[in-house]
Design a protein that fits this description.
The chain is 69% helix and 1% strand. α3 runs parallel beside α6, α5 packs parallel to α10 (251-257) and α6 runs antiparallel to α10 (251-257). The chain has helices at 11-53, 72-77, 93-124, 127-138, 145-166, 178-202, 206-214, 219-230, 232-247, 251-257, 274-282, 291-321, and strands spanning 81-82, 89-90. The chain has 2 domains: 11-53; 69-321, MetI-like fold (Orthogonal Bundle), CATH 1.10.3720. It is mostly helical. A two-stranded antiparallel ribbon has the order 1-2. The longest helix has 43 residues, at 11-53. The chain has 12 helices and 2 strands; from the N terminus they run ααββαααααααααα.
């Protein structure tokens, strides 16, 4: 038997209407709050771009910006970076060389370890092991970068690099060197590679694993031959993001790598990265309106463009090679 209709002005109907209005109000407030968060992110990015462009490309105060005094041809065509010399030269390549050499060593150190940890956590570890090991692995991301820098300077160089290269191979190891900086930055990116890669590996459908096991594959065959190729796009994107993280690292490489501005491929030498130069020049005694200080913005703009390009490439790879499973 159907209940009689509720009158429009009854307490039950009024309460229902008030509840619906309150729910819509809450939804609107949450929507506007989330929209505000998105706007703040966009405004912050635009503000960063404005700060980088100011004093490097143009200057609203009427002063000459860096690229109005140093040509782009000299900036990218010269191979000497001597801003404090009587006749200063601003060739960015020594700083780019140090940055990418550190990043290459970091990737060679952190990517295999991070990917191996991700494969173990995804394919081999049980729930209890994963519950214990993953938080411990992610603790590496919470260590201050200054600590990593001194770890490379005080431990990696004298107790790892010198015994191998200097005492065994007879090669001179500088106290400040690219290798120690690259190793500690590689340790820093392990949690990023491991976490992102594990999420991608665990998203591979169980049916692919079961089919490989049904064909007689071992656990290693399934992990390396089926799961990793299926998640290749996500793994590659995580590696590129880790590379961008390594390129943008500041304090660890400033402490461990030194400040020699030179072009070379010897990781046992001291070299300066772009971020290291930004720290040195920012805390120096140069005039805030001088050319040396303005060069900080030019170097930072170059670094921003490099990391932005890497992020765009990683997103393009994700879209191009993404595997969609039903």
């Amino acid at each position: 038997m159907n209940s009689p209709p509720t009158p429009a002005d009854s307490p039950v109907e009024l309460s229902r209407r008030n509840g619906a209005k309150s729910g819509k109000l809450h939804e609107s407030v949450i929507g506007y709050a989330l929209f505000g968060c998105a706007i703040i992110s966009v405004v912050t990015t635009l503000a960063i771009m404005f700060v980088l462009l100011n004093d490097s490309v143009f200057n609203f105060t009427g002063e000459k910006a860096f690229f109005q005094q140093v040509s782009v041809t000299q900036f990218f065509g010269d191979t000497k970076w001597t801003p404090d010399a009587p006749e200063p030269r601003f060739g960015i390549w020594p700083l780019i060389n140090g940055t990418f050499l550190v990043s290459l060593i970091a990737c060679c150190t952190g990517v295999p370890l991070g990917l191996g940890a991700a494969i173990y956590l995804s394919e081999y570890a049980g729930p209890r092991e994963r519950h214990v090991l993953k938080p411990i692995l992610e603790l590496l991301a919470g260590v201050p970068t200054v600590v990593y820098g001194y770890f490379g300077l005080i431990f990696i160089t004298p107790y790892v690099l010198k015994p191998v290269f200097e005492y065994v191979l007879g090669m001179e190891v500088n106290i400040y060197n690219v290798a120690s900086g690259g190793i500690v930055v590689g340790i820093m990116i392990i949690p990023m590679v491991a976490s992102l890669s594990e999420d991608v590996l665990r998203s591979v459908p169980r049916s692919l694993r079961d089919a490989a096991y049904a064909l007689g594959g071992t656990e290693l065959d399934v992990s390396v031959g089926v799961v990793v190729p299926a998640a290749f796009s996500g793994i590659l994107a995580s590696i590129l993001l880790a590379l961008a993280r390594a390129i943008g690292e500041t304090m660890a490489v400033t402490i461990a790598c030194g400040s020699m501005r030179q072009i070379g491929l010897n990781p046992l030498d001291s070299m300066q990265t772009m971020t290291g130069y930004i720290v040195d020049a920012s805390f120096g005694e140069d005039d805030a309106g001088g050319l040396v200080f303005k060069s900080v913005f030019a170097v930072a703009l170059t670094l921003f463009v490099i990391t932005l390009t890497i992020n765009i490439i990683s997103q393009a790879i994700l879209r191009r090679y993404r595997e969609v499973y039903e």
